Records
---
Amino acid sequence: KMNLFTYDPGYKSTASCESKITYIDGDEGILLYRGYPIEQLAEKSNFLEVCYLIFYGELPTQEQYEEFVYVIKHHSMVHEGFRDFINGFRRDAHPMAIMVGMVGAMSAFYHDSTDITNPSHQEISAHRLLAKIPTIAAMSYKYTIGQPFIYPRNDLGYAENFLHMMYAVPAEPYHIDPLYAKALDLILILHADHEQNASASTVRLAGSSGANPFAAASAGIGCLWGAAHGGANEAVIRMLEKIGSANHIPEFIARAKDKDDSFRLMGFGHRVYKHYDPRAKIIRKMAIDIINKTSGNDPLLNIAMKLEEIALTDEYFIEKKLYPNVDFYSGIIYKALGIPTSMFTVIFVMGRMIGWIAQWREMIQDPERVIGRPRQNYIGHASRDFVPIDERK
Ligand code: SDX
């Protein structure tokens, strides 16, 4: 297995890159956005302020913040063409399939801002992606349940607007629970960026060829969908449902340790964190709070906590440094918010969009930018002559 991070292809490659946006220390479980610890941002900030920080590099003044909020509200409505475009999908399509298509289609609807060499085009594209992703996400959901679309309102905050677009129906008022809006806003902060994860690298790689930001973001959504990456939150819930009760946990722990069994403990392990994912710590506390304040008890949360307790005392997980990651508890919160499992990774897209587009712009503005082209170790046949079909065995 070639380790891209030490392999020198003999030329500057995207196998490793420089960035000023996010810092992770996997051994210490540290995560900083532009130098600010995730724990402080989670406690003291809000998602749009964190988006400003990640994109522009500094926390906004009151005036900068208010102007940014206004711009994002201004761009939150989508082009009327999306209502026709979405009708091309099957009603039983996975919302992530619709997201890949709709975000890619932004290249067609907003082609007036796709000159990637133009800094103002870079900025307006970023604003459009951040502003429209909740609207597109809610449309993807409403379309699959056959309900009319609900459009963004200027009197609502970012997370509130999404909950309203997801759950409101034209016929009656919808009450937005502040607890739910706060929980969603925090979840989005925790998912905003994570340095060179697979989907961020995909966006960088796609953008490095000069593809427009909407096409690059669509590529990122496709990559995030995988169960080993952003799709893990949905896979965790399915795993907990399959475990069914705490007394079945040992059987699944044994399967996770069995090399001949493809089963892995979803929501456990990480490419970089060899310690508890700092985001998982915050989400775990939030999951317990929200369950206590809503249903009072959640069998899946109980199984998750017991599973974590057993795994963290098992020598296999200790030796391999496998800890819960951001996806292990997030699904518990989504369920408590009434979000269907098919929308879990869509929420991840909503949080991560700002990280992708900030990294895309950082890469585009790099004067030494190279077109991403990782090299390979060729392990196939040596050169050999063609064999006519009647001579093949
Ligand atoms: C995300 O990169 C990011 O930052 C991603 C992310 C982000 O914010 O963008 O943090 C979001 O993707 C989090 C990860 C979500 N995925 C899952 O929860 C799926 C389950 N996790 C595994 O698929 C796995 O842990 C990975 C893919 C996340 C990492 O796999 P690696 O790189 O193989 O992990 P590793 O090298 O640390 O593994 C060490 C050993 C290996 O066994 P050996 O080869 O040493 O025998 O531990 C094993 C692995 O096979 N292992 C597991 C395991 N994860 C790793 N064994 C059982 N269950 C697991 N979950």
---
Amino acid sequence: MAFEGLAERLQGTLNKIRGKGKVSEADVKEMMREVRLALLEADVNFKVVKQFISSVKERAVGQEVLESLTPGQQVIKVVNEELTSLMGGEQSKIAVASKPPTVVMMVGLQGAGKTTTTGKLANHLRKKHNRKPLMVAADIYRPAAIKQLETLGKQLDMPVFSMGDQVSPVEIAKNAMEKAKEEHHDYVLIDTAGRLHVDEELMGELEEIKALTSPDEILLVVDAMTGQDAVNVAESFNERLGITGVVLTKLDGDTRGGAALSIRSVTDTPIKFAGMGEKVDALEPFHPDRMASRILG
Ligand code: GDP
């Protein structure tokens, strides 16, 4: 499971005060010191940790007493609520355009899981929302990307629009939009090219596709295993493109959790989905409250 180390440590720390009939300010202080260390070790952004600790402290000391909970449980409840709010509070749903098709640009660095996530999202939209998406193979630089998306399309029995790798991504996007309108697709999922790092050329091309397709959603796909780097990548993409949501992939791996806990507050962009494996059905809407409960046990 994701965040195992963090979960274990936080649970251990919180268990010490769970049953306490009385919680002193010193108890809270001691506990918060341990929570702080656990978060830093999980690669959570330094500023985020600081803000988190001060909100919990403020609320945990001198809060209203609920009769149904022991003081220890109340502190844990505060930690849970603050963790939830750190990850965005309410679940944030994928956009729906008032006039179809809804255009979704999938962006991110190479290897983050963009192509896989495009297939997963198409599957999710059909299965859970009864939609008819068109996937668009616009990653012409990674040699296997077009084939990979076509294979996913075959596997899902869902259409993939491609024009090979000799046509510019902007041209592909333009033709795909026409095709989607003709064939009444209600979602267009554009799998754009990634690079090994954020560069000028990549961003310029993405800006062009954005200008041409006026996407309702720009989803940044990031690898949760990369921790703080994922947060930095999200900041760069957000500055240039204005992303509307994040998909955190590989949360099934033994990520330390830093990305999941920092991305929302650093970029002010909601995490919309979590990738939980390599298979096409391993995509889940991201629920901050469930994730917090999972971490706290
Ligand atoms: P792209 O370069 O961003 O298009 O990345 P790919 O979609 O090709 O994914 C890169 C690798 O990550 C592939 O081996 C995928 O199977 C794997 N991958 C993608 N998402 C997940 C996930 O949520 N969990 C796991 N375990 N692997 C994933």
---
Amino acid sequence: GVVLGCRSLGMVYAEGKLRTPVFDRLDLSVREGETVAILGASGAGKSTLLHLLGGLDTPTEGEVFVAGHRMSALSDAARGALRNRALGFVYQFHHLLPEFTALENVMLPVMLNGREVAEATERARILLESVGLGHRLGHKPGELSGGERQRAAVARALVNRPACVLGDEPTGNLDEKTAATVFDLMLGLNREQRTSLVLVTHDRRLARRLDRVLELHDGKLRELQPDEV
Ligand code: ADP
Ligand code: ADP
């Protein structure tokens, strides 16, 4: 089935008299296990789309669906709980909490999901091991390398076995070799868990490795054929 999508999505940023419409009745459906890349020029609205799909912002028109729920029909608390349970986020910057260890950072979404400490610890440890950080459990973000921090962020995004991960240039801050390693890890884990992925990127080589490539242009999403990517 469809795990994430939007229908007739519209977003208008209003600042005083200036109105910036970003989308033109946008439709998108992401199926279970499907990986989707979103390309587009700077300012095309990629980050805005990801924020709306992730429930971090409210569209001015249309609807966002996450795991069968209409986001606008939920209370703030219910939307927050659904985001934590059904979605994972990986940004260009890791957003790990600096005072917590890698293990604690990855445990947090599990705890917020109402699980016991023992289960959260075990799942966080397994995920961190599978991203190659089994020897860094007690390290705080400041004690990790850039690549290690992004791998911890990937573990955190996947620890609740979400329906879909939303990635905004998750490897954009890393050198080419580290970026390739982190990307391979993320894609491998996503496929293994059958977690869907929506990835905003400007890197066509990364985009090409996903199931579908869409381009955001003039407020519309267009599916690119393999020879166009
Ligand atoms: P992209 O991620 O593709 O670079 P964005 O989603 O950041 O694009 O931005 C899309 C458009 O919306 C741009 O014209 C940008 O200036 C505008 N925009 C984004 N965020 C805001 C905001 N908070 N207030 C006003 N305009 C915004
Ligand atoms: P941008 O890419 O637009 O410059 P950031 O990547 O810093 O901004 O963050 C994107 C948005 O996601 C911000 O509104 C931020 O508050 C929010 N955010 C950051 N981390 C999380 C998180 N773990 N869960 C939910 N929202 C987050």
---
Amino acid sequence: TPVLRAKDLVKTHHGEGAPARAVRGVDLSVRRGEFVAVTGPSGAGKSTLLHLLGGLQRQDSGSIWLDGMCTDRFSEARWATERRRRIGIVFQFFNLVSNLSVADNVELPALLAGVSPKQARAEREQLLDELGLQGKERSMPGELSGGEQQRVALARALVNHPPLLLADEPAGSLDSKGTREVTRLLTRFHQRGQTILLVTHDARLASAADRVISFFDGRIADDAELDRVPPRG
Ligand code: ADP
Ligand code: ADP
């Protein structure tokens, strides 16, 4: 079973002004171990798609399966539980809890998932080491650079070993050094088997993926597996 599957997803935003038809019928399947980038211009609907796939917003119609499990009838509470177990999310603006230390930010999702404090601490230590953040445990997010905050956010997203990592413009507020760093880290986690769905308008970041989906006007315009061996005929 795919880690994630979506069928006929549709979402229209009703804000001020004309309704925005952000996602207009999307079919998508992400297999275990894939690194998929969804790329396209600003306003194409990429972020909305990611929010639907992570259960952060609800689709108007269509279906989403997580590890083969249909999520359509999930309550908000059920989505929150399944998300905590199965999906790590990183955002453009990190979304760290500003009044919690780095260590507490990373441990929180583990504690919320029922992991023992001791185990949460061990997971946190390992991830922060791996991400080059040793010594920053007691810092507050606001004391860190953007690149460091995004690494903390990555640690938080991965602390429960989720089968799926969703990344929404993870380099969108970083400089070129931070962008290279995020690219390198996503590539490294992918090489270790992490399934990743990345949404970005940044072509360089997208090229780190092994499958690039071009998104335009709420629809998939192209879906290309890089290095794909052509089928034999
Ligand atoms: P992208 O991530 O590709 O830039 P978005 O999904 O953010 O695209 O936006 C797609 C369209 O939906 C845009 O026209 C945007 O203005 C609109 N939109 C996104 N979020 C909302 C919202 N919460 N309320 C109203 N309109 C929205
Ligand atoms: P919820 O109760 O909706 O699960 P939390 O209080 O657990 O939310 O999440 C706190 C912050 O972490 C929020 O900004 C939320 O967007 C973000 N978040 C929620 N789930 C995840 C996740 N699986 N990985 C990373 N960040 C998350």
